[in-house]
UniProtKB/TrEMBL annotation:
Name the UniProt record assigns to this protein: Probable malate:quinone oxidoreductase
Molecular function (Gene Ontology), one example: L-malate dehydrogenase (quinone) activity
Catalysis performed (reactions): (S)-malate + a quinone = a quinol + oxaloacetate
Species of provenance: Cryobacterium zhongshanensis
UniProt xrefs under NCBIfam families: mal_quin_oxido, PRK05257.1-1, PRK05257.1-4, PRK05257.2-1, PRK05257.2-5, PRK05257.3-1, PRK05257.3-2, PRK13339.1
Length: 490
């Protein structure tokens, strides 16, 4: 049985980022990657399974909800933006080092906008803008309630809209569209060139901690071949919706009490050049009452494999599957004695969410078109096709007050000895892969991290600091990464 230093389970952007960081700080370590599908980046990292927004909280209103007293604070939005800057800095350094290719192959400048209508929503957006406009990482944000101005930003939003409807929008030109599928493939290509084994059509069917502190992983080749095993000193479970089952199999106590709540989705997509040419932005609105945060409606410009298109959605739904390509038994098979309490508590406290999701499942094409026309009044269904988005498995976990809570975000689970770690949850996910994986290195390898830190700071100059506290340094960082990645500088 072969023994390696690191096994990465899952061929998505998280494993690709972690593998890249490890090769940068510890190039002599042996790494093997196992992906059960025939290619890497086919689940959540696939560009058609996500919106590729490059979550920097420039346009996502769910990062700045209005409090019951009407106030709006920027803390979470600034935190999300800080994390995205770490990812940008890493990608910039990897472009300079030749790890990543011409940046327009995976990231492109795309203005980020918010758009609302109705008196209360306009007042909210005005407050949001007032809080953000002087934040260093949000420099360059514009605000308008004038349909003529908003129409110059993106004509499809205002064309044929009722004249008496109050509207407002913000715009920041330095937003991005990221093809996380391409980014993931480029990172794995570089890892393979450095001797990392990147195996597809191989599924990890079980894992067990051995007495010598290593992990034994049982492997099954899905296309020919025979079952095999590998030993690893460290294991990262980056298998998206499949991560929970593997962490449960590991038996680590840190995984107890966690459950998964799957949310499916669909997008409307158009490649009609006449429509695509009229909209160059990612425009986010407000979520419907009871909708989960990842269901915030948005009309997005996408750049995938050199082709531009528009994406609208998502239309949320419910299915017990944890992966787009898995089985209907994922949810029931994930129930354990230690997590059934939190899962039932979540169900009890989220009846409205369940009603919303089931309503979305049965929404007609007419209803979907009507939702699109809230953003784009001139939309015609003949220009659009319906595509299935990736599965998002939200974290359910114990809570001392509520019994269990549904967490919209990401959760890193690590064993006490740091020999295994896994990632649960979804958005902002891929956009914050770099800070999440740096934090994982620090948690799992505390004795080695000090020796690694100088190289990590070369790759990520702002690591361990806060850009938003220093306007001059924030501006310099944004300008540097914009120049390297060929992006608009705010």
């Amino acid at each position: 049985m072969a023994q390696v230093d690191v096994v990465l389970i899952g061929g998505g952007v998280m494993s690709a980022t972690l593998g890249t960081l490890i090769k940068q700080v510890q190039p002599d370590w042996s790494i093997e990657v196992y992906e059960r599908l025939g290619e890497v980046a086919q689940e959540s990292s696939n560009p058609w399974n996500n919106a590729g927004t490059g979550h920097a909280a420039l346009c996502e209103l769910n990062y700045m909800p209005q409090a019951s007293d009407g106030s709006v604070t920027a803390d979470k939005a600034v935190s999300i933006n800080e994390q995205f800057q770490i990812s940008r800095q890493l990608w910039s350094s990897l472009v300079i080092d030749g790890v990543l290719p011409e940046p327009t192959k995976f990231i492109n400048s795309t203005p980020h906008m918010t758009f609302v209508h109705g008196k209360s929503n306009v007042e909210y957006l005005r407050k949001r803008f007032a809080v953000l406009k002087d934040q260093p990482l949000f420099h360059g944000m514009e605000y308008s309630e004038d349909p003529a101005v908003i129409g110059t930003w993106t004509p499809l939003i205002t064309k044929n809209r009722p004249k008496n409807q109050r509207i407002a929008a913000t715009r920041i030109a330095s937003g991005t569209d990221v093809d996380f599928g391409a980014l993931t493939r480029y990172l794995f290509d570089d890892l393979a060139a450095k001797g990392v084994g990147v195996h597809v059509n191989q599924q990890v069917t079980g894992l067990k901690k051995l007495t010598d502190g290593t992990w034994r992983l049982n492997l099954r080749r899905l296309v020919g071949g025979h079952p095999s095993m590998v030993k690893a000193r460290f294991v990262f479970v980056g298998a998206g919706g499949g991560a929970l089952a593997l962490l449960q199999q590991s038996g680590i106590p840190e995984a107890r009490g966690f459950g998964g709540f799957p949310i499916s989705g669909q997008f409307l997509r158009t490649t009609n050049p006449a429509v695509v040419a009229q909209h160059q932005a990612k425009v986010y609105g407000k979520a419907a009452v009871g909708a989960p945060p990842m269901s915030v409606p948005h009309l997005d410009t996408r750049h995938v494999e050199g082709e531009a298109s528009l994406l609208f959605g998502p239309f949320a739904g419910f299915t017990p599957k944890f992966l787009k390509s898995s089985t209907w038994f994922d949810l029931p098979f994930s129930v354990r004695g230690h997590n059934i309490g939190p899962m039932l508590a979540v169900a009890r406290h989220n009846v409205g969410l369940m009603k919303y999701l089931f309503g979305e499942v049965f929404a007609s094409r007419t209803a979907k078109l009507k939702a699109l026309q809230e953003f784009m009044p001139t939309a015609k269904m003949s220009d659009w096709e319906l595509i299935t988005a990736g599965q998002r498995v939200q974290v359910m976990k114990k809570d001392p007050k509520e019994g269990g809570v549904l967490q919209f975000g990401t959760e890193v689970i690590t064993s006490a000895d740091g020999s295994i770690a896994g990632l649960l949850g979804a958005s902002p996910g891929a956009s914050t892969a770099a800070p999440i994986m740096v934090d994982l290195l620090q948690r799992c390898f505390p004795e080695r991290y000090p020796a690694w830190e100088p190289r990590l700071r070369e790759l990520i100059p702002s690591l361990g600091t806060t850009l938003s506290d220093d306007p001059a340094r924030a501006a310099a960082s944004l300008a540097a990464t914009a120049a390297t990645l060929h992006l608009t500088n705010p």
